[in-house]
From TrEMBL:
<dbReference type="Pfam" id="PF00106">
    <property type="entry name" value="adh_short"/>
</dbReference>
<dbReference type="InterPro" id="IPR052992">
    <property type="entry name" value="SDR_member_12"/>
</dbReference>
<protein>
    <recommendedName>
        <fullName>Short-chain dehydrogenase/reductase SDR</fullName>
    </recommendedName>
</protein>
<dbReference type="InterPro" id="IPR002347">
    <property type="entry name" value="SDR_fam"/>
</dbReference>
<dbReference type="InterPro" id="IPR036291">
    <property type="entry name" value="NAD(P)-bd_dom_sf"/>
</dbReference>
Length: 71
C-alpha cells in the first residue's frame, strides 16, 4: 500500500489557497502543503482562528510562507 504522505510531490514555488483551513481536514492539508514548500493561504471566517492556525503551521513546519485571508 502506498503512503500518500510520502508520495506527495515537492510543492516549492506553488501557491495553494486552502478553504476551511482553520480546523479539521483543511488545517491538516494546509500544514502538509506548507511542509512540502508551498506558499499557503489559509482561508477562514474567524480572524482569531486564522491567525492561530497560521502561527501553528509556521511553528510546526518552519515555513514563513503561510498567510491568512478572511472570507
Amino acid at each position: 500500500m502506498t503512503n500518500v504522505a510520502n508520495s506527495t510531490p515537492d510543492m516549492q514555488g506553488k501557491v495553494c489557497l486552502v478553504t476551511g483551513a482553520t480546523s479539521g481536514i483543511g488545517e491538516v492539508t494546509a500544514a502538509a502543503l506548507a511542509a512540502r514548500g508551498a506558499q499557503v493561504i489559509v482561508v477562514g471566517r474567524n480572524q482569531q482562528k486564522a491567525e492561530y492556525t497560521v502561527q501553528q503551521i509556521q511553528s510546526e513546519t518552519g515555513s514563513d510562507s503561510v498567510h491568512f485571508l478572511l472570507a
